[in-house]
Automatic annotation (TrEMBL):
Gene3D superfamilies the UniProt entry points to: Aldolase class I, Quinolinate phosphoribosyl transferase, N-terminal domain
Domain Quinolinate phosphoribosyl transferase N-terminal: start-end pairs: 21-104
Organism whose genome encodes this protein: Coleofasciculus chthonoplastes PCC 7420
Domain Quinolinate phosphoribosyl transferase C-terminal: 106-276
Upper lineage: Bacteria, Bacillati, Cyanobacteriota, Cyanophyceae, Coleofasciculales
The protein's name: Putative pyrophosphorylase ModD
Catalytic activity: nicotinate beta-D-ribonucleotide + CO2 + diphosphate = quinolinate + 5-phospho-alpha-D-ribose 1-diphosphate + 2 H(+)
Pfam families, alphabetized: QRPTase_C, QRPTase_N
Family: Belongs to the NadC/ModD family.
GO cellular component, one term: cytoplasm
A GO molecular function held by the record: nicotinate-nucleotide diphosphorylase (carboxylating) activity
Length: 288
């Protein structure tokens, strides 16, 4: 379960409804009772259905049917329905649809990437970076979890991941290796991982006592050879590949034998295509 605050839900509504719905107001239909239904148009991994239901409830609608985040649906499957007056349904319509289309798009993209990667290497895991689209982090995290990935880092406070920028201030890789015992003693419950761009540094780190190496923008062929050699030196070393991993090359990177793939691509997925229908009074024959 990912906690998404009510304040976040209210912000989504307010972005679309700063004051009132002028169209519904001028048509004079606000007090008429109806039903709204959300349906997949393509195969979709659901995400943030619960938050979309919260949007509906927040404006005064009653949710009458919902399928949970993480379910994989074929095209043409209803998954969320609510009743209420036309004013409430129209207030919730676009905030809920926008949330669902982004979140389900990310979840579906993540799921497809996981399938591609694990077809090549059943043990590899996908980890998404913290480079989310600004303002979307809570729903992005929930969506990638729904698709079968995990966050690589939720923020800089939780992991020790050393980049070249850090090493520049530390005096280089050799200075870092000298200080590594002290660093590890201070964060005994954490893994210490270093990002590298060349094989010479990777091999130097493999015998240094480091917990893991993250390879940045190393081509898959060279990486496969390096992973084989590094694992023979240090079988317990965690190995990650990052940088430019996408649908076209993820299987090749997975096949290198790395433990995990670090990527940003899911956050920029094509939105899911979610159909929204509203009817007055009688409702739909099939709510789900």
């Amino acid at each position: 379960m990912v906690f998404i605050s009510q304040q976040f839900i209210e912000q989504l509504i307010q972005e679309d409804v700063p004051y009132f719905d002028l169209t519904t107001q001028v048509l004079g239909i606000g007090d008429r009772t109806g039903t709204i239904r959300f349906t997949t148009r393509t195969k979709t991994v659901l995400a943030c259905t619960e938050e979309s239901a919260s949007i509906l409830r927040q404006v005064g609608a009653e949710v009458i049917a919902i399928l949970a985040t993480g379910q994989i649906l074929d095209a043409g499957v209803p998954f969320l329905s609510a009743t209420g007056n036309a004013a409430a349904l129209h207030l919730a319509w676009k905030p809920a649809q926008n949330l669902l289309e982004y979140a389900c798009g990310v979840a579906t993209k993540t799921y497809n990437l996981v399938q591609l990667a694990q077809a090549a290497n059943q043990d590899v895991m996908l980890y998404t970076t913290r480079k989310v689209i600004p303002g979307t982090k809570p729903i992005a995290v929930k969506a990638i979890l729904a698709g079968g990935a995990y966050p690589h880092r939720l923020g800089v406070s939780e992991t020790v991941l050393i980049f070249q920028q850090h090493l520049n201030f530390l005096g280089g890789i050799d200075s870092f290796i000298q200080q590594l015992p002290v660093i590890k003693r201070q964060v005994k419950e954490k893994k210490v991982i270093v990002e590298v761009k060349d094989m010479a540094t990777a091999f130097k780190l493999a015998t240094s006592g480091i917990d893991g190496i993250q390879f940045d923008k190393v081509n898959a062929e060279a990486l496969a050879e390096a992973i084989s050699q590094i694992k023979s030196i240090n079988p317990t070393l965690i190995t990650l590949a990052a940088g430019g991993i996408n649908d076209a090359n993820i299987a090749n990177y997975a096949a290198t034998g790395v433990d995990g793939l670090v990527l940003t691509a899911p956050y920029y997925a094509q939105p899911a295509d979610i159909q929204v229908e509203m009817v007055c009074r009688g409702g739909f024959r099939d709510l789900l």
